């Protein structure tokens, strides 16, 4: 049973974090500072501001996860409100200050009910909205989704879930080649909801059609879609080459070979990559048996697989691990990692004016990292989630 999350420590006076390497959209500032005044980052410090020396550390924007199914032993698809809050808090401890809650395939009435629960959490600011991954996906590329509950993306059904989410639907993953797929993409685009191509068996040409109709995201690129072929390039080529598309990548060392990640970064560029976790209940919790929707999952050595069939079933990733792997294993610059973990997903959510960077006026969402790129402090909206560990 999940436990209730611990409260954050509120900032009661203006604060200056001084001496860190501060990563800004314009580059990294050595011996920089970030001023926190209330819930926001300020341009200058009041005379009475408290100063904390964070020399020898990195200050980066809070991470933004647009594809996350749970954590801390809790599922966003089936957990109680208290359990969902525990999952959210688990990821905050690892630097994710903004999170979109993802559901997995289920009965339509059940998903509509879950949308109602999650929309309340979005309305009070606990999550940044809802991502529906399924049921509108291909049975050929179902991954860890229950095949008997899959259905074609009929725009009427898509609209039902949008309405149930009360304006808090942020993204739908669709197999756009299925009947109704293109019309559903157009519906979503008209309402400002992200249409993501994923769990798809589409051809190259069908994927291009979906992008032209308004699809702008590739759900966990490379996973749950046909492989790249030299005569039948499939969705991967179409999604990588179109500048209108941002590609999700799960950088856990399991979902992607390093060469695949390098290919995506080299071809799409850092400005079109969003690192996600695709996390399930076990993230930040441990190995064992879990349920992902109606399917049983075995997590061993941090890798989640369906008990029946062995398909990878989400991840146990947290975004601090994705960040550290990006700069210490994959050879990305810190600036490119920040772009993929903060700036790009904030842009996709239409919230670049409030999150995703450490510029004045944004929320005081930030992560403090040591030289080994381990988290030593997390702040969300001016309150410490993880008190700085210095020295």
From TrEMBL:
Keywords: Carbohydrate metabolism, Hydrolase, Metal-binding. Residues 59-385 form the Amidohydrolase-related domain. It comes from the Bacteria. Pfam families: Amidohydro_1 (PF01979). CDD domains: NagA. Its EC number is 3.5.1.25. The keyword Cell membrane does not apply. SUPFAM superfamilies: Composite domain of metallo-dependent hydrolases (SSF51338), Metallo-dependent hydrolases (SSF51556). One of its GO terms (molecular function) is N-acetylglucosamine-6-phosphate deacetylase activity. InterPro entries: Amidohydro-rel (IPR006680), GlcNAc_6-P_deAcase (IPR003764), Metal-dep_hydrolase_composite (IPR011059), Metal_Hydrolase (IPR032466). Transmembrane segments: none annotated. It is an enzyme of class 3 (hydrolase). The keyword Zinc does not apply. PANTHER family: N-ACETYLGLUCOSAMINE-6-PHOSPHATE DEACETYLASE (PTHR11113:SF14). NCBIfam families: nagA (TIGR00221). Belongs to the metallo-dependent hydrolases superfamily. NagA family. This is N-acetylglucosamine-6-phosphate deacetylase.
